[in-house]
Design goal:
The chain is α/β, with parallel strands linked by helices. Helices cover 35% and strands 16% of the residues. It is built from 7 helices and 5 strands; from the N terminus they run αββααβαβαβαα. α4 runs parallel beside α5. The protein is globular.
Length: 179
């Protein structure tokens, strides 16, 4: 009896799930995997820079004050967390591994900042699971940000996967809030 192997997308997203387990953030917990020529070349999860206290240990001022001092959509310039996609790109750079022409698998759709970095790194495809929903409080800014985001993402092939996430309520802040 032969066993059915997962398709390529399911396989790499499964690795992103495993990487996400190291995420130490009070917000979304994200894992990312960069793949080139059907090989994993780098991984990343969201958390603070190496050697600093983690968010869950009080390391990030913004994460210490959710909804209070920093209402939703504000204070990102004070957040010291490095996003999963950023960490994957930076880890590859640290070890001299080129990411141009690669595919990035991520458990959450890249945010505006990560989208810019992905495009600049010449990553050609992004495969994500959960949608990213910006939470700015200014409707005009939301409209402008969405248009600029779409301009950036149009340079990259983007696909959303339809796959069960067994730890979605743990990983996605908006789902935790509903629970």
């Amino acid at each position: 009896m032969s066993e059915t192997l997962p398709d390529t997308d399911t396989y790499y997203m499964g690795i992103a799930f495993a990487v996400r387990e190291k995420a130490n953030c009070t917000g979304n917990r994200v894992g990312a995997v960069i793949v080139r020529d059907n090989r994993v070349i780098s991984t990343g999860y969201n958390g603070v820079p190496e050697g600093m206290p983690n968010c869950l240990d009080g390391g990030c001022l913004r994460c210490q004050n959710p909804g209070g001092r920093f209402p939703s959509g504000t204070g990102y310039d004070l957040c010291i967390c490095v996003h999963a996609e950023q960490n994957a790109i930076l880890s590859a750079a640290r070890f001299g591994i080129a990411v141009a022409g690669s595919t990035l698998y991520t458990t959450m759709q890249p945010c505006f900042g990560c989208a810019k970095e992905i495009a600049q790194a010449k990553i050609v495809e992004v495969v994500y699971l959960h949608p990213w929903v910006p939470t700015d409080v200014d409707p005009e800014m939301d409209r402008d940000k969405k248009a600029e985001y779409e301009k950036i993402m149009a340079r990259i092939k983007v696909r959303q996967m339809n796959m069960h996430d067994p730890r979605a309520e743990w990983a996605v802040r908006s789902l935790r809030a509903k629970g």
